[in-house]
């Protein structure tokens, strides 16, 4: 995610988290294609430095799919990573302050009290990165499995964001469930986006403004969560070093750790040493 956030944020550097002034021009974005889409987006967001693409990614042709598809992929990747980063930033702050659910993760009333593990037990671990490392393997697999299902639904939507679809759009889970028209075999009562329908009556102008605000906040969150992770690993991060962020011992970029060594390939993964990669044996 680090490389991706650096490359996609370079396509249009956000000016803090402030929304653009005035109403964005929907027609300008609708008429633009390829690189022009990114230039129009930067103009709508009224970024002081304008369109900025030092890596020239907006001129690339990934996988020989064409420039329009490449820009669609880059835009969708930035929006998705921004959303994940916003959730991660809030989660890091919540976990660092000992806020947790009151229930048991395993054991407890209906299980073996000797092996019980509660959210409070995890919250007692100071560093959020180490809290994730302590989550039971079954819990990690449930979380990653849910993410995989959501990814499958999003990637099978039509039109795809690389084929003329809207970058950042996520299809309705209710429409994707059952009825012979979807790819989820059972009913889903709520959508991932706007599950209670609060924004159904918003005008197109308001929705466009909200999308721009989301992109700006996502860019800021990507920088923010990386700053928190770096500070938790003992690196110098201006503005965060004085906050007393708990130091983590686990690897923040690894889904699995020593507690998950029973899973296929994990034991070999844990033995991998990046420092010796490519060195003669």
What does this structure look like?
The chain has 281 residues and is mainly α. It has one domain. The protein is built from ten helices and two strands. It has helices spanning 2-9, 26-31, 35-44, 67-96, 119-123, 128-134, 137-155, 173-176, 204-232, 266-271, and strands at residues 104-106, 117-118. It has a two-stranded antiparallel sheet with strand order 1-2. Helix 1 crosses helix 4 and helix 4 (67-96) crosses helix 9 (204-232). The longest helix has 30 residues, at 67-96. The radius of gyration is 22 Å and the shape is globular. The chain starts with a helix and ends in a 10-residue tail after the last helix. Chlorophyll a 1 binds at residues 52, 78, 81, 83, 214, 219. It comes from Emiliania huxleyi (strain CCMP1516). Chlorophyll a 3 binds at residue 217.
Q: Supply the number of helical segments.
A: 10
Tell me the major beta sheet. 2 strands, antiparallel
Principal-axes geometry comes out as globular
Which spans of ≥5 residues are poorly predicted at pLDDT below 50?
A: 1-25
Number of domain units: 1
Beta-strand content estimate: under 5%
Going across the biggest sheet, name each strand in turn.
1-2
Beta-strand segment tally: 2
Rounded to the nearest angstrom, the distance between the terminal CA atoms is 31 Å
Overall residue-averaged pLDDT value: 84
User: Which H/E pattern describes the elements?
Assistant: HHHHEEHHHHHH
Structural class: mainly alpha
**Oligomer state of the chains in this structure:** single chain
Radius of gyration: 22 Å
- State the helical fraction: 40-55%
């Amino acid at each position: 995610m680090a490389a991706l956030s650096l490359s996609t944020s370079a396509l249009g550097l956000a000016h803090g988290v402030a929304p653009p002034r005035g109403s964005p021009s929907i027609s300008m974005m609708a008429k633009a294609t390829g690189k022009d889409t990114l230039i129009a987006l930067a103009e709508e967001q009224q970024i002081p430095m304008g369109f900025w693409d030092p890596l020239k990614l907006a001129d690339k042709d990934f996988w020989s799919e064409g420039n329009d598809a490449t820009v669609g992929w880059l835009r969708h990747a930035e929006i998705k990573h921004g959303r994940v980063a916003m959730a991660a930033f809030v989660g890091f702050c919540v976990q660092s302050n000992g806020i947790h659910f009151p229930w048991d993760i395993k054991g407890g009333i209906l299980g073996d009290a000797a092996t019980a593990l509660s959210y409070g037990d995890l919250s007692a671990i100071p560093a959020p990165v180490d809290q994730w490392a302590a989550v039971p393997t079954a819990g990690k697999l449930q979380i990653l499995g849910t993410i995989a299902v959501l990814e499958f639904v999003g990637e099978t939507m039509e039109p795809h964001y690389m084929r003329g679809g809207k970058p950042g759009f996520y299809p309705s889970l209710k429409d994707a469930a059952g009825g012979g028209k979807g790819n989820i075999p059972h009913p889903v009562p709520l959508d991932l986006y706007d599950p209670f329908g609060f924004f159904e009556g918003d005008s197109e102008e308001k929705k466009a403004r909200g999308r721009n605000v989301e992109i700006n906040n996502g860019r800021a969150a990507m920088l923010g969560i990386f700053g928190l992770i770096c500070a938790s690993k003992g690196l110098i991060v201006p503005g965060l070093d004085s906050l007393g962020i708990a130091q983590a011992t686990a690897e923040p970029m690894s889904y699995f750790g020593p507690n998950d060594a029973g899973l296929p390939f994990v034991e070999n993964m844990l033995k991998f040493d990046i420092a010796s990669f490519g060195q003669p044996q």
